[in-house]
């Protein structure tokens, strides 16, 4: 995985610049890079006809002018939705991107990308196979991280592509066997992605002692950014990459 210069954490824009542009859109990803982010995080799931699409929620209701489950809509139906107008008039006409469109941007920009797999399936729905096939076309190497809250999705990824860097997501409000990473052994992740509240000094020290890299989410307050930089995390996922860039600059001044 890409390591930050000057021993500083990576500046990773959460769903793009979600504070300033409609989340998980190409507009948000482009703006993140313009603001100086090292890269961005995005969410991926399957459409009804098996395309990898970039969207966070199970339904399109919150972020588009449509309604209904993502997995019950074809790519054409998803592309017909407006994914920008709800955020602001100047983003009207922004569309739900495919993962291929997002990775095209990554390839052109040399950015880092964290792809989060959004699935609750224990047995698999074909997403991981399609994801591996697409990713291998780009040769992103250390500029890629695959993450998920679902340890079984990561296990499938490990079996399909042992070379890809994986990260296990977890948070304080999960059930104990997920929160305490009982199933991490299934995928042997290279990194851990805890919520920022779980990134205590003790937790960071433990993760480092085990050889994990630590990418922490979602951090929008300057005081928390400073705290995590001081703890030595490897990446900070934020809705405000412009603010994090300023904090990082001051930390080495």
* Count of domain modules: 1
Structural classification? alpha/beta
Based on Cα principal axes, name the global outline. Answer: globular
Strand segment count: 9
- What is the level-2 CATH architecture name? Alpha-Beta Barrel
Please summarize the sheet with the most strands. Answer: 8 strands, parallel, barrel
The first-level CATH class name: Alpha Beta
Report the order of strands and helices: EHEEHHEHEHEHEHEHEH
CATH topology-level fold name: TIM Barrel
How many helices? Answer: 9
Beta-strand content bin? 15-25%
* N-end to C-end Cα span: 26 Å
- Helix content range: 25-40%
Question: Which superfamily, in CATH terms, is the homologous superfamily?
Answer: Phosphatidylinositol (PI) phosphodiesterase
Task: Walk me through what this model shows.
By secondary structure, this protein is of the alpha/beta class. It has a single domain (5-251), classed as Alpha-Beta Barrel (TIM Barrel), CATH 3.20.20.190. The protein has 9 helices and 9 strands. It has an 8-stranded parallel β-barrel, surrounded by 6 helices. It is globular and about 45 Å long. The two termini are 26 Å apart. The mean pLDDT is 94.
């Amino acid at each position: 995985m890409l390591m930050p210069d000057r021993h500083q954490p990576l500046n990773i824009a959460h769903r793009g610049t979600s504070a300033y542009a409609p989340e998980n859109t190409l507009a948000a990803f482009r703006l993140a890079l313009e603001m100086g982010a090292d890269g961005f995080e995005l969410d991926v799931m399957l459409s009804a006809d098996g395309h990898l699409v970039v969207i966070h929620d199970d339904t399109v209701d919150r972020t588009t002018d449509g309604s209904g489950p993502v997995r019950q809509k074809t790519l054409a139906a998803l592309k017909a939705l407006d994914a920008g107008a709800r955020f602001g008039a100047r983003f009207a006409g922004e569309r739900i991107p495919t993962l291929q469109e997002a990775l095209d941007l990554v390839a052109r920009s040399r950015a880092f990308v964290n792809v989060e797999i959004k699935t609750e399936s224990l047995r698999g729905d074909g997403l991981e196979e399609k994801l591996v096939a697409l990713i291998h076309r780009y040769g992103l190497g250390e500029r890629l991280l695959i993450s998920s809250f679902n340890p079984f999705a990561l296990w499938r990824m490990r079996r399909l592509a042992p070379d890809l860097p994986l990260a296990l997501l977890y948070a304080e409000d999960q059930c104990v066997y997920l929160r305490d990473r009982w199933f991490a052994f299934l995928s042997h992740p290279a990194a851990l992605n805890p919520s920022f509240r779980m990134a205590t000094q003790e937790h960071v020290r433990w993760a480092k002692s085990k050889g994990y890299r630590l990418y922490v989410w979602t951090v929008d307050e300057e005081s928390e950014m400073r705290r995590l930089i001081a703890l030595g995390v490897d990446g900070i996922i934020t809705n405000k990459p412009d603010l994090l860039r300023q904090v990082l600059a001051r930390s080495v001044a």
